Amino acid sequence: MSARGWLLFAAMALLWGVPYLFIKETVETFTPVAMVAGRTLGGALLLLPFAIRRRALRPALAKWPWVLAFGAIEMAGPFLLLGHAEQTLDSGMTGLLVATVPLVAAIIAVVRGDRSVLKPLRLLGLVIGFGGVAVIVGGPALVHGVDGLIAVGEVLLVAVLYATAPFLIAAKLADVPSLGSITIALGAVGLFYLPFALVFPSEAPTLRSGLSLVALAVLCTALAFIAFFALIDEVGPARAPLFTYVNPVVAIALGALLLGEELSPQLLIGFPLVIVGCWLAATGGRLRQRRSVPIPEPTPPV
Length: 302
Prior knowledge:
Blueprint: H1 3-15, H2 19-26, H3 32-53, H4 57-62, H5 64-85, H6 91-98, H7 101-111, H8 120-144, H9 146-172, H10 178-199, H11 207-235, H12 247-258, H13 265-283
Helix pairs in contact: 1-11, 2-6, 2-11, 3-5, 3-10, 3-11, 5-9, 5-10, 6-12, 7-9, 7-13, 8-9, 8-13
């Protein structure tokens, strides 16, 4: 990989590893609905000039029902669920639970008829990964009780939605410019949530929560998608999503260093199990991807 490729790889590991920190700070004063509305509308406005310049809007508008479905699965549901869950869970734990997306994607692939997932190493990855999740879930259950389990369930539902979205893209939006689909989806989600954000007002925002919301829109949405497109152009679609294995490290480290989140024994034990399990389930233990990848690699924005 070129120096530019490594730079973009590092940028994506940070840009989609840090959102959990910003979400945690934002929902201290903003409601989850207001957070989603602000993030998506801000991201859409920033991406709009690039989409217009690349003439990416018209092809996406031609398939608007599927673009809206993509927005609902990839943004509307996950962003709201993450905001609500992080009112209870630590940001690092949330980031690690979202990293289970490859496990869910492997199961979806089996349901769709992809038998390559049933190879021994990939099955072993599923077992190890979900074993790590079971260990991690014990932490919120002990600390927060039922509320903690509900929050964990919300984040795992996010993983299901993020794992489903690539299959929708591959089936219905493969010939549509990604920038157009993302810009329109972000705008539609933001406009949908805006009335609810106005009806259910937030607390008076602090400087930290306000800046965190701006960072979510500018850095973790608009800039992250631009960098991701550049990374795909530089290293190809097979290797580009590999930064998702680094995201939980960033999320956990930032949560511990900046928010003082505890590195519980459950987190320390479950973390390597989830990462190794995801890698085995997604790759079968291969260090290099083959040219034809049976499972669309999930690359969730957060």
